[in-house]
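Reminder to self: tokens first, then the designed residues, so the page reads top to bottom the way the pipeline ran.
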């Protein structure tokens, strides 16, 4: 009877030991799986960080490329605008020269559009006498941008030098000259008054009477007398 009890107890112990061994094996396997999962999570986190860095680098490169494209487009647009402005300026200068040539030809043909050269016969008196005499005496001299005599003039250089002889100091710029003198109605024009041209006030000549001006127009022409209306008039001013 005792032997039977002992045998039964031993079997229980053996089964318990076997169960415990199985548990330990399963626990070890589970621990291994947990370690594997932990390592995988660590690898995934590291890879996620690497991907974030790569994304940041790609986004930075994309922004650089966009900035370069914008800069190139802006430079191209600026170059195109500059080329268009130069072409427009050249076309305007050619048109102005052609208009002046046509006006001079008409004056020459008609013989009554105003004086062909030189000064008017009479002056209004005062400083205008000296200004007109000086300006008309420069007829035939060369045009040179920025020049104010004695051998060449640009438009505002001629009017500035002429009115300096009349005792009036003017700036060497057509728009600035317009700003320092009172406005005159066309009906009240008298010899010595200045005639300003174009919407940007980029040209000026001196009225000499009989619908004519003396001016230094552009590099394609010298100082000469022409019809006052040969170019689009902006306004009139009287120095002094």
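Designed residues (240 positions):
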């Amino acid at each position: 009877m005792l032997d039977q009890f002992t045998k039964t107890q031993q079997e229980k112990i053996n089964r318990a030991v076997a169960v415990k061994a199985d548990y330990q094996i399963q626990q070890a396997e589970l621990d291994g799986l947990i370690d594997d999962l932990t390592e995988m999570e660590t690898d995934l986190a590291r890879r996620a960080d690497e991907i974030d860095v790569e994304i940041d680098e790609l986004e930075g490169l994309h922004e650089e490329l966009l900035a370069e494209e914008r800069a190139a487009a802006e430079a191209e647009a600026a170059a195109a605008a500059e080329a268009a402005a130069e072409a427009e300026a050249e076309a305007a200068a050619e048109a102005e020269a052609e208009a002046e040539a046509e006006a001079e030809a008409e004056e020459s043909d008609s013989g009554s559009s105003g004086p062909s050269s030189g000064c008017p016969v009479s002056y209004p008196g005062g400083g205008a006498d000296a200004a007109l005499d000086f300006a008309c005496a420069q007829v035939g001299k060369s045009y040179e941008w920025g020049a104010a005599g004695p051998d060449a003039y640009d438009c505002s250089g001629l009017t500035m030098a002429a009115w300096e002889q009349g005792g009036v100091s003017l700036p060497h710029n057509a728009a600035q000259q317009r700003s320092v003198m009172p406005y005159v109605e066309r009906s009240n024009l008298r010899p010595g008054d200045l005639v300003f041209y174009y919407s940007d006030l980029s040209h000026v000549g001196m009225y000499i009477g009989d619908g004519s001006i003396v001016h230094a127009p552009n590099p394609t022409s010298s100082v000469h007398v022409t019809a006052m209306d040969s170019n689009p008039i902006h306004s009139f001013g009287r120095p002094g």
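DSSP finds four helices and seven strands in the chain.
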